[in-house]
Every structure is written in structure tokens, then in C-alpha cells.
């Protein structure tokens, strides 16, 4: 019984748990709130682990499928299932949520229960996005994730949080409305079905494909985000509390990338090929242009936010190369970026909790007072620059290898990240960690606590683990990627 | 045997991990004990492997584990053990072991280099040992690899550790500028290197050396499309792209700018970077890829020209330096130029030969300079030295040996290896070899001049340091002296011991492949050449004579007539100014690349991101706000208004569904 409904449990356990936290918790009962939240988060993670261990690596078919009627007259189903693309993302979600709960342990003082509940509900909704195989179900989860994040930024955010929250909300909402229209159109094309798998099989004309592609593009490009619809992200990150930034960077952005894999490429192969040049151009602009913008940021979070956009450029670049290395590279880049960007935002959080400023110029010489923290941040900075041996390298390498197969110059432009990515990352590290102690505040800093060492340490294990032995991660994707490559090479006209 | 291969790098890695992670618990003795044990064992095992390779002819090429598979191709971590690898392993671990032992003395009072309450300064000694062991591990992974991905891993890991080590004293502004510069300049090289690897993967479908070398001949005439109607030979593209990586690591003009600044690191690191690890990576890589490079004379020409420029012009910079470490740093650049010239002339064996002898005498010179610096209380300006030979006889003696070897005076090691390169260039017919020959011959004079300028300024003449320092001058402790003596032995002997097998014999077997028409030594080898012949022949050739003239000139300028140096400096002021500014490379790079990137970034951010995109979005939001202000009037609050609108809506929706 339980084993047949793993996905349902993974979705609803954190949501119900979150509601429970909300009901039981108040600011007088913080220890209870913390323990209960951690318990729910860990339990959810444990529930998702069998998805990995029980996953059949040999097939591209959906696994752990659950199917039931939801709104029968409109043929909307409660249809869940995972393949090699969604399963790793679900595990990433359930893992990162644990870290976010730990990271908010002492730092959040006001409305702790609501804070924890927002993240737990968020977790369930995001798992829902990755597990949904019915377009309407997907859409509902997709839109629903906006609300907790909107509240997280709006309530626990920085000084300019309202502007950021509304910008975030409107940007992503406008994008996804067009997606709904596209889904309704596909419903008719797929013979009155909202099943995404039926969408995959539907035959669609050329013009329709292009229009549908652009509609989905509006939703996913904003989410991931691609240049030039990226400007909501730096503001959202800067204003969001640490946990919000972590979820945003580590998982929410991946929803956009996942959308391209689930909708654009397999449903609209002809449009994908026709618009590949456009997509690749936007991706490469993100890789290069955004790297320069990151270089001149004076706010740590903004710098890392821009760095995220630049890294996501690699994801979309890889996807639209239509070869194995490209798509695999894009997927690995998404997973890796989940760990690395999460770690970078947590590092900023560690500093912010002590100094209450994100201005780079307020720091300098932190390595003297926080050597252990400096070591962790060194590792994550290097992972951010794609150093071999860290997870950051694997995706970039595969994408560059894939790009070279398509066109020499794509690889040349993409590979400039080796220099530019290193430049903004190391310059940040130099200004914050190295140098003499610049002021009294830095002098008074205390090194990371055991709680902080725990979440940074866990991330370090994954960053190094994937870097040194990425084989197992790629093995779960192979079948799905082979299948996708085959799908994109078949014309639907 | 496979366990032995695996143990060699892993011993260094484990030692680095213990010293780094548990440094506080195991203390100083524990840290240097465990790392010296690790590297020492790695050295002994490397020696054992070398014996196995050269005596018994046991070669190995196989995977350790599968890193990942993609598109049907397995990216593996694996080892290739052949003559070239074994040579490198012995050189790397030996020099590294010497540096480890030496470091006990050099870093003994490192706490003085840190601010008083710095927590990072507390375990700095242990951390340093951890880093140098990690450095050795990285270099071993690089030379032992049997495929390009692992090569790249070692390549980048070396870059990372050099970054950590150059900026080891991160309290110093100059150190953290230098380490970032080193990493970024190396990344420019890696950019080319990675593209070369990508090209190989795209065309060969494999990244294993053996398979690549096997397929290469069938792609000899393959062209790749660059732009418009421009096509390049694939092999040439690959060779040049990989060489760009080598230019970064092995500090060839114009990517050499990081190396002089790397002096900001503690001296043992300079020895390790300049002698055995890091800078040798590029030379090694090209030698390893000899089957590819032999197929592209265009690439070889580029290599020989770049090498010749580096050898000549960087040597000139050594003449005007006053910082003792900088003199040696520029000599490294110049000697790397020699090795590169050798590669360009297809004398890969001669280059590796010079790499080996240079590793010994350059480590010796750096550690000797470090010994001087210890005695001078961390002053490095040679103008404040002088007359040290009476106080530090062993340092003096070993430095003389190192300088003679560097200057290429027979029968010291450097003579054989350097002369072999000069000889090879002489026989080469490749484009650029004429200029290269000129450079390396003139270079012989320059090398001898700045080497002995250093000796004379430091150890001869009147003591010029302040009274306090002079009173405390003394020879360095045994942990410093013993490595110097141990390094002096191969600096004397390695030349005539190895010249015959390496150049004329079958020392490298199939590890290095040279086309018959490129092989400068083949003809000579047929006549039964020996080290003695080589020496007799070479001793009266221009390079050695020029080196002797260089030594004598240095004597005249810095001992016999010290006033002349200043006079000439004034006379040649414009030229000196160019040299003092390192040919303006640093200034131009700083202005164009660093400054340009910042200007571009800030322009893109402020005008494109903030003004254009956000301006548009905010304008849109304002427009929406205006419209919604109007539309709000519709929300009358009367229930029947809403009900009416709902019914209309429902009606429209149903008709839409029915119509479809």
C-alpha cells in the first residue's frame, strides 16, 4: 500500500506536516516547532530515498506511477510518475529542505512556525511539480509554489522585500499564464487528454509548434531564468531570507529547466530544432554577459544570483544541443548547481547572521577569524568555478564536449566561463576571506557552529561526491536521455 | 603492481588529508611526520616502479575506475605507466621530498608571519604541509594519467593548490593579488586546453591516449571549419589548443605573467612550483602528446617561436632584478623557454632531460636562496646582502653548483641537457628554428651572467646588511642544508649519467615518438656517441664559450669593478626602464583585461540590466497599475454585478467549448 504511493506520500507528507506545524506551533513553543519541522523534513527525505534505490535504470518509462481520475468531465487526472529527469530532482528537493530547516533553526525569531510551514508546504508542492504527469496537475503545483515563496520573501525578507516579492510574483505568473493556454490547446491535440505522455505522442503542425514553444518558453525561461527575463532573480535573492534564497536557487530554478525537458523538447521537437539557434544564443549571452555583470556586483547575494543565471545558461545551452552529452551535462549542471548555489547562499547566510550586511566591502580578512568557514567557502567557490573533482565541473565539461560536436564556436564561447566564472568567484573570495582583518566587526566574528558545520559539511560531501564519482547520478538518467534524444530527432509534422 | 601505482598518489593524498583536517590534533611534528612519510614512501615506490619499468620493461595502461559514462563512452580514471611517466614520478617525488624536509626548517617560525590573534595562523605550519602534499598528489595524478580527463583533473588541481600556496600568507595584499592572477592566467590557458580536449572528443570519440594516438594517423588530413571559407587541419587545431594550456602552466609568453609574482608564496613553494610541479606540466604534456605534435609542423613552429621568445626575453629580465628570488624566477621562465624550444624542434627527449636536470638544480637554487633568506631575516634584496660566503659556506658551495649547472658549464647536469636542446635546434629545419637557435645561444650568455651576478652580489664583496642582521648571520640548520646537499648530487651527475640513454638510446621506448626526419639525434647516435664525446665536442662550441664570457662579465661588473654596474644602468636607462616594467605586460593586461572587464560589466549591468530591461518591466508594471486603477471601478461591491459578470463569463466559456 505504502510502497505503491511513494510519490503521493512524498508530496502530501510535507504539506500536511507543514499544516500541522502551523496549527501546533506558536512563537512560545519554538523547540516543538523546530523538532517537528525537522522530523517532517527528514521523514520526507527518507520516503523519497526508495525512489532512488528502487529505480529501474534500464527504462525510460515512467515509474512509481499513480493514476486516478480527478476532474472526470475535463479528463483531468491525478497522475504521478517519475523518470530519470524528475527522480533526481525530487531527491534534491527533499534533501535541500532538510538543510533549510536546519539553517533556519536559530536564525528566524519571528513567526517561526509559519516560516517552517512555508518551507515544508513548498517542498511538497515542488515535489508535486516534478512528479506530476497530468498537465493541469502540473500547472496547479507550479502556480501554487509561487504563494509560499511570495510569503517567504514578503514576510522574512529584507528592506525592499515588497518590491522584490511582487516583481517575483508578477514576472513568473505572467509567464505561466501562457503555459496554461498552451496546455489547453494540447488537450485537444492529444485527443481530450491532459496527460503529458499523451502530449508527447500528439501530432502538431509547424506553426502551432512554434507558438506553443513560445508559450512554454514564457513560463520556463522566466523561471530558470534566461536572459533577458532574468532581472527578477537578483532582486528576489537579495531580499529573500537565506532559506528562501537556497530553495529559490537550488530547486525553483530547476523547475524551469525541467519544464524544457518535459514539455518543449519532447512535445515540440520541430519547433525546438527551429528555435535552437535562438535558445542557444540566449544561453550564451547568459553565460558571458551575466558573468561580466556578476563581476561588478557589490552585494554578495546579488553576485551569487548573477552567477546562478550564468550557470543556468549552461543548462539551456546543453538541452538545445540535442546530443547526449549536452542534455546530460545540462541535467548534471542542474543537480550540481542545486548543491553549489545552495551552499554559496548558506555561506552568505552564515556571514549575514553575524554581520547583518551583504556588502562585500564590509568584509575582509574573515579567514583570520573563521578559518573553518573559509575552508568550506573555498571548496564551494571552487565548485562554482567548475574545478575538476567538484560537481561543478561535470556538467560544464559535458556541455562543452557536446557543444563542440555541434559547432566549434559554441564551445569556444561556452568555455570562456573557465576564465570569467573564476574571475568573479575568486575575486569575491579574495575580498571577503583574504587580506588583513578590515574592521572591528570582522575581528569579533566567531567561527561556524556545529549546526552550521553540519549543513555545510553535508553539502561538501555531495559536491565532492558527485565530482569524484558522477557515474551513479548519470546512470539513472541514461535511459531517459536516450529516449529524449530519440524523441527530439523524430519530426512530428 | 597496480596496488603500488595506486598507492603512490594516494599516500600523498592521505597524508595531505590528515595534516589538513587533523592538523590541530596531531601537532607540528605529526603533520610533517605524516606528510614526509607519505611523500617519502611515494618516492621509494616510484623508484621501485622506475626500476620495474627500465629493468624489467613492465609497462602498464589500465583503468582504476569508471568516472562516468555518457553517450556510450566511458570516462575513466586510469594510469599509464611507461618510461616517461616513471621518469617524471621519480623527479617529482624526489624534489618534493627534499622540499618537505627543507620546509621543517623554513617554516619553523611561521607564526611571525601572521597577525597575533589570527586563528588561521595557529595551524599554518600543518596547513602548509598539507598543501605541499596535496600539490604532489595533483602532479602525480597529472603525470600518471592515461587519458585527457584525468590529465585535466591533475592540471586544474595543480592550479588550485598553487593558488592556495601562493596566497598562503593571505594577510599580504601582494600575495592574494598574485594568487588570483596566477589562477586566472592559468585559466586562460586551460580555456584553450579544454577546447583541445573537446576537439579530440568530438572527432576521435575517445579520450584515452592510446586510442587517440591510434586513430590520429587516419585523421591526418582532416580539416575543420573555422569561419567563412577558412579551414584548419584538425590535428593542428588540437595541438595548438593544447599548447595554449601548456603556455599557461609552463609560463610561456604571453601567459608568463603569473610566474614572477608567484614568488609571493613561501620559498619552499617557489622551489616546488618552479622545479618539479606545475611549470613542468606543460612540457610534460607536449612530450606525452608527441605522436600528435609530430603530425603538425605548424604547431611545432609556433611552439619553437614562443619558446625562443620566452627563453631570450625573460632571461634579459633576470639581469636587472634585485630580489634574489625574482632572479631565479626569471631564470625559470627562460629555462622553460629552452624546454619549449626543444619541444618545437621535436627533441622531446632533450626537453624532458632538461626538465629533469633543471628540476634538481632549480630546486637547489631556490632552496639555497631560501637558506639565505632565513639568514637575512626574510630580507630578499641582494643590494642588502654581500659577503655571505664566509657565514654560510655550505649554502654558498651548493649554490655555486646550482649556478654552474644552470649556466651550462661542463660537466654539470645543465650543460648536457641544455646543449642537447641547442644541438637539436641547430639541426631543426622547421620554420622559426633559425631565430630559436639565435635565442638559445645568446641565452647561454645571459643565463651565466645573471646566475653569477646573483652569486657575486649575494656571497661576495662587502656585507651590506645592517649591523643587527650581520651579527646574527649563520649557516642554516641541518633540515635546510641536507636537502641542498642531496639536490647538489644530481645537479652534478644527472647530466652525464643520462645523456646517452635519453638522447641516443632507447630510454623512453615508445613513450615518445619522433618522426625520423625530425630526429636530430638519430644520425649522431649511429656513430656511437658517448657522454665524453658530447662534452669534448660541446666544450668549445659557442654556447659554452658564451657562458664563460657571461661568468667573467658578471665578475667584472659585480666584483672587480662594482661601479660599472651602476654606470651601465644609467647609460642604458631607457632599455632598463622597459625591463623594469617587464615589457609592460602587467600594465597592459591590468588596464585592458582587468579594467576592461570591470568597465564592460558595469556598463552591461547599469545600462542594459537596470535601465533597459528593468526599466521596461517597471514601466509595464506601472501601466498595469494604471489600467487596474481604472478597472477597479468595476468592482462595485454589489453582489448582483458580480453574479451578472459570472453568468456572462460562463456563457462565453460554454459557447467556446461547444464551438470547439
Task: Write structural notes for this entry.
The complex is a heterodimer of chains A (493) and B (660). Chain A is mainly alpha-helical. Chain A has helices at residues 6-24, 30-53, 86-103, 112-131, 135-144, 146-156, 161-189, 196-201, 206-223, 232-239, 242-267, 269-274, 276-295, 300-319, 324-355, 366-369, 371-384, 391-406, 408-415, 417-432, 440-443, 450-468, 471-489, and strands at residues 63-71, 76-82. In chain A, strand 1 and strand 2 (76-82) form a beta hairpin. In chain A, helix 1 runs antiparallel to helix 4 (112-131). The radius of gyration of chain A is 21 Å and the shape is globular. Helix content of chain B is 73%, strand content 4%. Chain B has 27 helices and 4 strands. A two-stranded antiparallel ribbon of chain B has the order 1-2. In chain B, strands 3-4 form a two-stranded antiparallel ribbon. In chain B, strand 3 (223-227) and strand 4 (230-233) form a beta hairpin.
Present the secondary structure layout.
The complex is a heterodimer of chains A (493) and B (660).
Chain A: H1 6-24, H2 30-53, E1 63-71, E2 76-82, H3 86-103, H4 112-131, H5 135-144, H6 146-156, H7 161-189, H8 196-201, H9 206-223, H10 232-239, H11 242-267, H12 269-274, H13 276-295, H14 300-319, H15 324-355, H16 366-369, H17 371-384, H18 391-406, H19 408-415, H20 417-432, H21 440-443, H22 450-468, H23 471-489
Antiparallel strand pairs in A: 1-2
Chain B: H1 2-21, H2 23-56, E1 60-70, E2 73-81, H3 83-106, H4 124-144, H5 148-166, H6 173-204, H7 209-215, E3 223-227, E4 230-233, H8 234-249, H9 258-261, H10 267-276, H11 279-288, H12 290-293, H13 297-320, H14 324-344, H15 348-375, H16 393-407, H17 413-427, H18 433-459, H19 467-471, H20 478-504, H21 521-526, H22 531-538, H23 542-560, H24 563-571, H25 573-580, H26 585-631, H27 639-659
Antiparallel strand pairs in B: 1-2, 3-4
Helix pairs in contact in B: 1-2, 1-4, 2-3, 2-4, 3-4, 3-10, 3-15, 3-20, 4-5, 5-6, 6-8, 8-11, 8-13, 10-15, 11-14, 11-15, 13-14, 13-18, 14-15, 14-17, 14-18, 15-16, 15-17, 15-20, 16-18, 16-20, 17-20, 18-23
Amino acid at each position: 500500500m505504502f510502497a505503491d504511493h511513494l510519490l503521493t506520500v512524498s508530496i502530501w507528507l510535507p504539506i500536511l506536516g507543514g499544516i500541522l506545524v502551523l496549527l501546533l506551533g506558536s512563537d512560545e513553543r519554538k523547540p516543538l516547532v523546530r523538532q517537528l519541522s525537522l522530523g517532517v523534513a527528514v521523514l520526507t527525505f527518507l520516503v523519497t530515498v526508495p525512489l532512488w534505490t528502487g529505480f529501474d535504470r534500464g527504462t525510460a518509462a515512467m515509474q512509481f506511477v499513480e493514476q486516478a481520475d480527478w476532474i472526470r468531465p475535463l479528463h483531468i487526472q491525478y497522475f504521478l510518475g517519475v523518470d530519470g529527469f524528475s527522480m533526481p530532482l525530487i531527491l534534491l528537493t527533499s534533501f535541500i529542505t532538510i538543510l533549510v530547516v536546519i539553517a533556519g533553526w536559530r536564525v528566524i525569531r519571528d513567526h517561526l512556525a509559519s516560516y517552517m510551514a512555508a518551507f515544508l508546504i513548498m517542498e511538497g508542492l515542488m515535489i508535486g511539480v516534478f512528479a506530476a504527469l497530468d498537465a493541469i496537475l502540473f500547472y496547479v503545483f507550479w502556480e501554487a509554489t509561487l504563494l509560499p515563496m511570495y510569503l517567504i520573501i514578503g514576510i522574512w525578507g529584507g528592506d525592499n522585500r515588497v518590491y522584490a516579492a511582487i516583481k517575483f510574483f508578477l514576472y513568473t505568473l505572467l509567464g505561466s499564464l501562457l503555459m496554461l493556454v498552451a496546455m489547453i490547446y494540447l488537450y485537444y491535440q492529444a485527443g481530450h487528454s491532459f496527460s503529458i505522455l499523451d502530449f508527447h505522442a500528439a501530432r502538431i503542425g509547424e506553426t502551432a509548434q512554434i507558438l506553443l514553444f513560445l508559450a512554454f518558453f514564457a513560463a520556463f525561461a522566466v523561471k530558470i531564468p534566461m536572459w533577458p527575463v532574468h532581472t527578477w532573480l537578483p532582486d528576489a535573492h537579495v531580499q529573500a531570507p537565506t532559506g528562501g534564497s537556497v530553495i529559490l536557487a537550488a530547486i525553483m530554478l530547476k523547475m524551469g529547466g525541467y519544464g524544457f525537458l518535459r514539455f518543449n523538447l519532447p512535445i515540440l521537437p520541430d519547433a525546438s530544432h527551429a528555435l535552437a539557434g535562438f535558445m542557444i544564443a540566449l544561453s550564451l549571452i547568459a553565460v558571458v554577459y551575466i558573468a561580466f555583470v556578476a563581476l561588478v556586483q557589490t552585494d554578495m547575494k546579488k553576485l551569487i544570483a548573477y552567477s546562478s543565471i550564468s550557470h543556468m545558461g549552461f543548462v539551456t545551452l546543453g538541452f538545445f544541443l540535442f546530443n547526449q552529452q549536452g542534455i546530460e551535462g545540462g541535467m548534471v549542471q542542474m543537480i550540481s548547481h542545486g548543491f553549489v548555489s545552495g551552499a554559496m547562499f548558506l555561506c552568505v547566510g552564515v556571514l549575514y547572521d553575524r554581520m547583518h550586511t551583504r556588502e562585500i566591502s564590509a568584509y575582509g580578512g574573515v579567514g583570520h577569524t573563521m578559518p573553518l568557514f573559509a575552508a568550506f567557502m573555498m571548496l564551494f567557490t571552487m565548485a562554482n568555478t567548475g574545478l575538476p573533482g567538484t560537481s561543478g565541473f561535470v556538467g560544464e565539461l559535458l556541455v562543452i564536449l557536446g557543444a563542440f560536436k555541434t559547432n566549434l564556436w559554441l564551445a569556444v564561447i561556452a568555455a570562456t566561463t573557465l576564465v570569467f566564472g573564476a574571475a568573479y568567484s575568486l575575486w569575491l573570495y579574495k575580498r571577503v576571506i583574504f587580506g588583513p582583518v578590515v574592521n572591528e566587526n570582522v575581528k569579533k566574528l566567531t567561527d561556524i557552529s556545529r549546526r552550521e558545520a553540519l549543513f555545510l559539511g553535508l553539502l561538501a560531501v555531495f559536491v565532492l561526491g558527485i565530482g569524484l564519482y558522477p557515474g551513479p547520478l548519470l546512470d539513472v538518467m541514461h535511459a531517459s536521455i536516450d529516449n529524449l534524444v530519440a524523441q527530439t530527432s523524430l519530426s512530428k509534422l | 603492481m597496480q596496488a603500488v601505482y595506486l598507492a603512490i598518489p594516494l599516500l600523498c593524498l592521505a597524508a595531505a588529508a590528515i595534516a589538513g583536517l587533523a592538523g590541530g590534533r596531531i601537532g607540528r611534528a605529526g603533520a610533517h611526520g605524516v606528510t614526509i612519510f607519505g611523500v617519502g614512501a611515494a618516492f621509494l615506490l616510484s623508484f621501485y616502479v622506475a626500476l620495474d619499468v627500465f629493468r624489467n620493461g613492465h609497462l602498464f595502461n589500465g583503468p582504476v575506475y569508471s568516472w562516468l559514462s555518457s553517450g556510450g563512452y566511458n570516462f575513466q580514471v586510469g594510469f599509464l605507466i611507461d618510461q616517461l611517466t616513471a621518469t617524471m614520478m621519480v623527479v617529482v617525488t624526489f624534489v618534493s621530498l627534499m622540499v618537505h624536509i627543507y620546509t621543517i626548517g623554513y617554516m619553523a617560525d611561521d607564526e611571525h608571519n601572521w597577525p597575533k590573534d589570527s586563528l588561521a595562523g595557529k595551524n599554518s605550519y600543518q596547513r602548509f604541509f598539507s598543501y605541499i602534499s596535496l600539490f604532489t598528489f595533483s602532479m602525480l595524478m597529472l603525470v600518471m594519467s592515461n587519458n585527457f580527463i584525468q590529465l585535466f583533473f591533475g592540471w586544474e588541481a595543480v592550479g588550485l593548490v598553487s593558488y592556495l600556496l601562493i596566497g598562503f600568507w593571505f594577510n599580504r595584499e601582494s600575495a592574494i593579488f598574485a594568487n588570483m592572477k596566477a589562477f586566472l592566467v592559468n585559466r586562460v590557458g586551460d580555456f584553450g586546453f579544454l577546447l583541445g580536449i573537446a576537439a579530440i572528443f568530438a572527432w576521435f570519440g575517445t579520450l584515452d591516449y592510446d586510442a587517440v594516438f591510434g586513430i590520429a594517423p587516419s585523421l591526418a588530413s582532416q580539416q575543420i571549419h573555422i569561419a567563412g571559407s577558412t579551414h584548419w587541419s584538425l590535428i593542428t587545431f588540437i595541438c595548438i589548443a593544447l599548447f595554449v594550456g601548456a603556455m599557461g602552466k609552463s609560463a610561456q609568453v604571453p601567459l608568463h605573467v603569473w610566474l614572477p609574482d608567484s614568488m609571493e608564496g613561501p620559498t619552499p613553494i617557489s622551489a616546488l612550483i618552479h622545479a618539479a610541479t606545475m611549470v613542468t606540466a606543460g612540457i610534460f604534456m607536449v612530450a606525452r602528446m608527441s605522436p600528435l605534435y609530430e603530425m603538425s609542423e605548424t604547431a611545432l613552429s609556433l611552439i619553437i617561436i614562443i619558446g625562443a621568445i620566452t627563453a631570450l626575453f625573460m632571461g634579459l629580465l633576470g639581469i636587472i632584478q634585485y630580489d634574489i628570488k625574482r632572479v631565479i624566477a626569471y631564470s625559470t621562465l627562460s629555462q622553460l623557454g629552452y624546454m619549449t624550444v626543444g619541444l618545437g624542434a621535436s627533441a622531446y627527449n632533450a626537453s624532458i632531460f632538461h626538465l629533469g636536470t633543471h628540476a634538481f638544480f632549480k630546486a637547489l637554487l631556490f632552496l639555497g636562496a631560501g637558506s639565505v633568506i632565513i639568514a637575512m631575516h626574510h630580507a630578499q634584496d641582494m643590494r642588502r646582502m654581500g659577503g655571505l660566503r664566509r657565514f654560510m659556506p655550505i649554502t654558498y658551495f651548493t649554490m655555486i653548483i646550482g649556478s654552474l649547472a644552470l649556466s651550462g658549464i661542463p660537466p654539470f647536469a645543465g650543460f648536457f641537457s641544455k646543449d642537447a636542446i641547442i644541438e637539436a635546434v641547430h639541426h631543426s629545419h622547421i620554420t622559426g628554428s633559425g631565430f630559436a637557435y639565435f635565442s638559445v645561444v645568446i641565452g647561454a650568455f645571459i643565463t651565466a651572467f645573471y646566475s653569477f651576478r646573483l652569486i657575486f652580489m649575494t656571497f661576495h664583496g662587502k656585507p651590506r646588511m645592517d649591523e643587527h642582521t650581520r651579527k646574527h648571520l649563520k649557516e642554516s640548520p641541518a633540515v635546510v642544508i641536507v636537502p641542498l646537499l642531496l639536490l647538489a648530487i644530481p645537479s652534478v651527475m644527472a647530466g652525464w649519467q643520462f645523456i646517452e640513454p635519453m638522447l641516443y638510446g632507447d630510454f623512453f621506448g615508445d613513450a615518445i615518438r619522433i618522426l625520423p626526419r625530425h630526429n636530430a639525434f638519430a644520425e649522431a647516435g649511429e656513430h656511437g656517441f658517448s657522454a665524453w664525446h658530447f662534452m669534448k665536442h660541446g666544450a668549445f662550441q659557442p654556447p659554452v664559450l658564451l657562458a664563460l664570457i657571461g661568468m667573467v662579465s658578471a665578475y667584472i661588473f659585480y666584483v672587480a669593478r662594482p661601479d660599472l654596474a651602476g654606470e651601465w644602468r644609467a647609460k642604458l636607462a631607457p632599455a632598463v626602464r622597459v625591463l623594469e616594467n617587464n615589457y609592460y605586460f602587467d600594465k597592459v593586461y591590468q588596464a585592458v583585461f582587468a579594467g576592461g572587464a570591470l568597465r564592460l560589466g558595469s556598463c552591461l549591468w547599469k545600462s542594459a540590466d537596470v535601465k533597459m530591461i528593468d526599466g521596461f518591466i517597471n514601466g509595464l508594471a506601472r501601466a498595469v497599475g494604471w489600467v487596474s486603477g481604472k478597472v477597479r471601478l468595476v468592482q462595485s461591491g454589489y453582489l448582483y454585478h458580480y453574479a451578472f459578470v459570472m453568468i456572462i463569463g460562463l456563457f462565453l466559456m460554454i459557447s467556446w467549448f461547444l464551438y470547439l
